[in-house]
Amino acid sequence: MQRDFFARALTPDFWPDFEKVMGPQGACYGCWCTYFRMPAPERQKASADEKKAFIRARVGREPPPGIIGYIDGEPFGWVQVGPRADVPNWNSPRTVSRPLEEADAKDPRVWAVSCFMMTSKRRGQGLSHALLGAAVDFARKSGARLLEACPMQRAKQSKSVSLFVGPANIFAAAGFREVALRKAGRPLMRLVLADPDQPAM
Questions:
Q1: Percent of the chain with pLDDT over 90
Q2: Which residues touch 160 (CB under 8 Å, ≥6 apart)?
Q3: How confident is the model at residue 195 (pLDDT cuts 50, 70, 90)?
Q4: What angle do CA 158, 55, 187 make, to 5 degrees?
Q5: Any idea what the CATH number is for the domain that residue 55 is in?
Q6: 31-72: per-residue pLDDT in tens?
Q7: What residue numbers bound the domain in which 70 lies?
Q8: Is residue 182 part of a domain?
Q9: 29 pLDDT band (50/70/90 cuts)?
Q10: Is 77 part of any domain?
Q11: Could you give the C-alpha distances from 138 to 19, 38, 53, 102, 201, in angstroms and in order?
């Protein structure tokens, strides 16, 4: 049976849909997708409710911090996608996702796909391809010229929670190419969306 997929940017109006995808525990042990956003000492001390409040406040500001995917009208997936500057921990010199050029961390047109999340019943169904395609479209329409990711090449199973960074094979299928390998199994991958001399939209 053909399924009706669509995606939309996460804005305050759709916060309840984000809550449904995250689940009552806030996904990934109460993270609420704050791992790359909150300073580590602050995040480690914060409760799940405090992390939830942090991301809800972020949703109230522009640009939207990512997109929600829907199947037959029901929210099932989340992709955190936006400028590198919006996910500061993704740029840390100690991380495998750090930028090739230091300036990329502050360039508003260099974007990152940093997190994936799907409801448990939708995992392992190939829907990550559709989610990534929607994230690419969102980045392109928002004026990004580069879109980067640091996915995982292998996981013990397709439904593994460790795939919150996304599986490398879906990025390769979408045209991303490896540009650095700082750790085995975690390539930094890039998709060129626009010529660097092309003005932003």
A1: 75
A2: none
A3: confident
A4: 40
A5: 3.40.630.30
A6: 999 999 999 999 999 999 999 999 999 999 999 999 999 998
A7: 5-192
A8: yes
A9: confident
A10: yes
A11: 21, 24, 25, 24, 12
